[in-house]
Amino acid sequence: MAFVGTLLSIVSALDQPQEMNLAYQVSDSVQTASTLPAEQYTSEKVFEDEVERLFRREWFPVARVDQLPNVGDYLVHDLFGDEIVLMRDQTGNLNAFSNICLHRGCPILAGAGNVEGNHISCPYHKWAYELDGRLRGAPLMEQAEGFITSSNKLQPLALEAWQGWIFLNIDPAAKPLAPRLVELDEKLSSYGFADLRHVKTVTFASPWNWKIMVENFLESYHHMGTHPETLNQAFPAQGTYGEKVRGNYLLLENPSIDPDEIPPFWAGCILPATLFALIRSDNIPYAVWYQLDIKGRGLFELKIHILVHQSIAENVDAIEAITASTTAIHLEDIPMCEGVWKGVNSHFYKPGRLSHLEECLWQFYRYLAIESDQDSHQSSHQDRPGAGAKP
């Protein structure tokens, strides 16, 4: 019987789910750094932790200010499982609040557009709300004891307009965004980034982990292999480098072979996943914004937004040319990102060494390592240098 008891104990132990060791060390310098372990891309637990500790605590842009110019303009966005309404009210202010009706939880609005009149109403039971989310009317609720219409309001979200973007944060205790991006604000202001107009969006289904997209965006080492006839012709891989920055962002410099003819560009990331490229023409700068709508550990929807100077905002040919070249470059990137996703899911994958040209990846990994520690959120982001902080 003792033997049988021992066997049962062994079987019971084997049936218990095994804890994965998800901790990892990030090197003190890019010269000794390696890529992330496979589970940082493939583990459902890692992704769940990212949602709770990172995505629900950080700032994410959902639109550009010029996309909602008029009173009543609105946009509904799914922010990590929560539907949010972005709305411009009668005073001209932008508001963000839950799209879930206070009565029975039915979504109130869908898509984007402009509301007629000066209120919105739930299609289910016609509860009506002001454009700032305050409950305006609830039909036939007179017999509900203690119910006071004016005491109810759709759950608001923290909102900041910064450099033309509209950033939202789900965390009610979120610290302001702008103080964490003072240095980047100065850099972008030099090129009038806040005034760039949104003119077009191209959307791609992206069946791989979001970090693979961030990594691809933040290094131009791959220009020689992935873009030999496009980007590498004008912005050779060997000349690119990650800048030393202070703040919650990363910046990759891409010098041009002929600055007089072809302006250089920055590839940047407002951490954790707001990707942008700014083509730094002194006369007519333009930018692309890669918006990642992250849906799972191996899936996100990528929206590439074209942002242009006012002077070419109505120039159809110029906009189509920028869109075509941007799309062509991303089409070259897609098989590489899909390949890396396949690779990190292989039993043979092991972290590989980074090149000095991938310094922004090392900075990104440092940020992730810090943010994966729950205790790090007890300290002020405003006072903490960014992932690639200056000494």
Q: Tags for this entry?
A:
391 residues, alpha+beta, Rieske Iron-sulfur Protein, Naphthalene 1,2-dioxygenase Alpha Subunit, Chain A, domain 1, 2 domains, 7-stranded antiparallel sheet, 4-stranded antiparallel sheet, disordered N terminus
Q: How would you describe the shape?
A: globular
Please name the fourth-level CATH homologous superfamily of the largest domain. Answer: Naphthalene 1,2-dioxygenase Alpha Subunit, Chain A, domain 1
CATH architecture of the largest domain: Alpha-Beta Complex
The proportion of strand residues reads: 15-25%
> Which fold name fills CATH's third level, the topology of the largest domain?
Naphthalene 1,2-dioxygenase Alpha Subunit, Chain A, domain 1
Which class best fits the helix and strand makeup?
alpha+beta
Q: How large is the count of helical segments?
A: 9
Q: At the first level of CATH, what is the class of the largest domain?
A: Alpha Beta
- Please, what is the average pLDDT? 91
The Rg value, from CA coordinates, equals 24 Å
Oligomer: single chain
Helix/strand order: HHHEEEEEEEEEEHEHHHEEEEEEHH
How far apart are the first and last residues' alpha carbons, in Å? 67 Å
The helicity comes to 10-25%
Low-confidence stretches: 3-21, 374-391
The main pleated sheet reads as: 7 strands, antiparallel
How many separate domains make up the residues? 2
